[in-house]
Fold:
Amino acid sequence: MSTGDGVPGPGDTPGLAIHTEVPKHEHIGSKETVFELKDLSVFYGDTPAVRNVSMDIFKNDITALIGPSGCGKSTLIRCLNRMNDLIPTAKVTGQLLYHGEDLYGGNVDPVQVRKLIGMVFQKPNPFPKSIYDNIAFGPRTLGMQGDMDDIVEKALRDAALWDEVKDRLHSNAYGMSGGQQQRLCIARCIAVQPDVILMDEPCSALDPISTGKIEDLMLDLKERYSIVIVTHNMQQAARVSDRTAFLIVELTADEKDRWGEIVEYDETEKIFTNPSDERTEAYISGRFG
Structure:
């Protein structure tokens, strides 16, 4: 999985020339902007997947992407750490700024991007190693300084997992429950101290109790990280996110091509109680999607 670099702090991004002090134009009110998407579109070959997305994502917010299947939520979130680069036919147009820097600029190393912007996937994907070695893998690979026992313990505590596994750190991670494995993957991500955590349907394979633990964890982690989550669960978006973007599927007249576009992006409370677009209201109320 992609993880974050353990050396820089938020906004201090070696190799990306990120400003340590964010310019005033990157603030809206008291919120600091992490990502600025300007007319962002994604194509696979000549086929559009997402079109004309413009939105700002703010520091220490949980931003949710919701919408029906096929509307491009996963494609969009994967733009934020350039994972779509791994697909040979993928092409991104428009502009995506990260702390004011062009994330797709010619001098930007996508590997470095993925170190700073970690991702947690839909299915738990622990390495076939011990719990300890899962957490230590990233810090060791990056040559992070510090006592490895302390790094592992801190990551597991931050992921609300330490008390459950402290007596079996050298047991195989595959012996953990699904919910524990997902929290282990979150711990593995935050062990290297990323600036941003992306979560693509992180609870879809989990039971309600495990889902609740992950949601509680997200609310805790947003004090230190900026989080973007894709979810099909509208109740989850309403419970945990600060802002929500609703995407819809658009079709050409002959229905040959389909792509996702953002219908509405606003504070979550407004999206769920007083949306501006009737299509948002129809989706939230279950009338379509």
In short: Confidence is low (pLDDT under 50) at residues 1-15, 17-28.
